[in-house]
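I am still getting used to backbone structure tokens and would like to learn alongside you. Would you supply a protein for us yourself, any chain you care to pick? Start from the sequence, derive the backbone structure tokens from it, and show both lines together. Go ahead whenever you are ready, and we will take it from there.
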Amino acid sequence: MNDIPYITKDVPSYRGKILAVVTSTDSLGTSGKGTGYELTELARAYYVFKANGFDVDIASPLGGKPPVVLDDDDMGLFDYAFLNDSIAQSKINNSLLLKDVKPKTYEAVYFVGGKGAMFDFPNNTFIQTLILDLHKDNKVIGAVCHGPAAFVNVTLKDGESFLKNKQVSGFTNKEELLLIPKARSIFPFLLQDKLIDQGAVFNEGLMYLEKISHDNNLITGQNPWSVWILAETMIKQLGYTPKPRTITTEENAVKVLYSYETKGNENSRALIKQITEENKQSISRALLIDHSAISILQGNIGKFYDLLRLAAYAKDIESNK
């Protein structure tokens, strides 16, 4: 952590506290598969909040040490920093019991994703109280990936759904079913369907690429690749300009992938050249290759080869810098 200037240098004076909420569920129903909160979705937001002057508490439905999902393919600098940060580890290994949380202590709440959230967020009365109290006090509420499951079954005093007419993003049906074809029988519901059923205006972005919805104090993200912009949008909504940060190689890869999907192959190649030669930054070739593998699951062989060629092109340009 001491090697990351963004975290340790020029940190603003104390601006208040943000609560991060993680799941306590360690299994996907009766499927026999393990689950938990997603480390990347906690760690990256945690350090954005810290770097911008906020202290961060971590809570879970059962308190104590919650189950975690570590995805080696997605682990980056901030994720490893979190694992080696004694203060962060003490907070996550001794997470606060949700029923003991005092909402007025916090300027914002952030619901971390992870498939376990689909099981223990929707019917948790302490989560519902937390959301209602922060909403009443005009505080900022954020959630990413499966985190918006926290909003399911939250009812305002007038009897209306908290989600009614709100712009929301979250893990989509397409994203869920591509990786878990039996998701409809494993989960109590599909998140996109449930959010829409409860009145949300669901904003669906491209599969496995950055997408957030910003509806006044409610800020939600579609998937793990949305965490950076979501956390920084929360900082803006709290009234501050986010501290400058070096864009990660994964974020650059997401930009290339978005360019490929929306503008085509040649534009994405031009963007690779701009990022590497003009901006002097790197691109995560591993993420490009991961998306090429996803295209196989989608049955898109042409896209598979295109993305492999883009990864090779990025390698060639970086090698010649």
In short: The chain has two domains: 5-237, 249-319. The mean pLDDT is 96.
